[in-house]
Amino acid sequence: MSTIAAQMHAVEGPRGRVAYERWGSGPALLLLAGLGSRARLWGELPRVLAGRFTVLAPDNRGVGGSRGGVAFTLEGAADDAAAVLADAGFPTAGVVGVSMGGLIACHLAARHPARVDHLVVASCAARLTPGHRRVLRVFELLFTRLAPPEAAEVLMAFAFGGSFADRFPGFVDQAARLWTLDPEDLPGALGHVAHLRAGWDLRPQAAAIACPTLVVAGELDPIAPSALTRELADAIPEARFREVPDAAHSVLAEGGAALLNEIVEFLST
To answer: Which domain, by its residues, includes 158?
Structure first.
């Protein structure tokens, strides 16, 4: 196994402190994770990518080392991400955003276009629909009614398709452990839910995205249905759309090495 290790950093921005991990060397690659997520959610992925990129992985506003500061918004999270890039010394970066991180990534590309040279967004919907609002209510109930490890275990049923979960049960167990909220992060995660339940529509921002963009969806995603992710791709000028068969919400993991190699090639062109 590689001996590459993360360096821990933090920047004091106008919206509060943002903590992030830095891995490897090379051109910058910013990883933006989903609801309630700290950098640790990425597991081994930063280490894998660190041979090609300087990987930057922040804790989302309200959780981990980014607790406190101004209340979470997608626009504010995009500004936090821009502050991370500036603090790390990179004028521009490739950006990969997953789930809520994909929404943040789109806002980053629209609000700070010079900061993003390539954009990959996965498992995120163009807008809030009634069905998505109900999914967010499920998150809220799980966070408030169950202990964090139990909530994470339940959410794995949404995160992975049945065939993947059956073939790789150990991987899914590890994902549940990585995704388990620290008790101190619960208020921040609920803040993410509340902001998203108030509604969003990325289509106006998406139309302003000018960098090369790859949009990835899981065919069986119950959280961000593929049709809504395709709608986002259609709203971004000249974006490529890629649907992964039989995958649910954790499409980057479910797509395996083939999808990861496709993403690395896209980011490197």
So the answer is: 7-268
